[in-house]
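User: I'm new to structure prediction. If I give you an amino acid sequence, what do you actually give back? Let's try with this one:
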Amino acid sequence: MKTALISLSCLVLSAHVSLAEFSIESIEGKINVNIDGKRFTTYDYSSYAKPILWPIIGPTGSEMTRNYPMKKGVAGEAEDHPHHKSFTFHHGEVSDENFWHETTKGNGTIRNTAIVTAEVVDGKAVIASANDWVGKDGKTVILSDETRIVCHADEHNRYIDFQVKLIAGKRDVTFQDTKEGAMMIRTHPELRVNGKVAKAKALNSAGDKDKGLWGKKAAWVNYWGPVEGAVCGIAIFDHPDNLRHPTTWHARDYGLIAANPFGLSYFQRAGKHAGDHTIKKGTSLTFKYRFVFHAGDHEAAGIPALYKKWTQ
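Assistant: Good question. You get back a string of structure tokens that encode the predicted 3D arrangement of the chain. For your 312 residues, that looks like this:
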């Protein structure tokens, strides 16, 4: 894509009216999304085995996700699970292909085929991309997707609305039962429940707390705590139209949070293939999520009310 800079001022409504100026820069396989001239996030669709968002800067000015492995040697960060790259959608078993791991041989890749849109529309930064999920042979397209990312903000919060349409082409495609998936974020080390620098608390819509979130069904989860001295958090909303809503969560205490409706044999102790879901050839399956990067703690952010407003 040619380098482009698009800037538009907008009024964004929350409890009060605030002014947020979004701009987009597209260059060298990446799309930068800026707020008031400063980086909010970057959509990197060329550097790794799948497209990712990194970094993500929250409303307090702190990074909300882990830097590793994109940037190594950051104080306090655990250098484990290199496939947990900040923010992405992928899955461990898709028609016997592995799109979750990257460090072992025989894994698939998610390759960008087109950037359809990268512009500011109605005061929101919008990125639409097309991607092929290519098998371990490096040639066979298992399925394709259409991804739409919308970034916006209000006086207190920053938002990423993520929608992915999974498209089966000439063959049926099965998302298989495994805990290793699917819509994931790896948090800043202080936004962990467990770890040397962990300071976070966690809660879901069902009332489960901290370590108790793993495997549970919930419409939303929220992790919050002090990051670089300022309290902030990450809430993830599962849309009511999504498969098996409210979803089950592969939500670890060490910073991985993933909405995963497929891992039922792990999360719910169901049968071995209870979580399998097949997308018939020529059809599609769409997932919609909202990520809220909020200032303040859970109560101050009003997460249940924000979820209700989003779903209505």
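You can read the tokens as a compact description of the fold. Here is one thing that stands out. The two ends are 37 Å apart (CA to CA).
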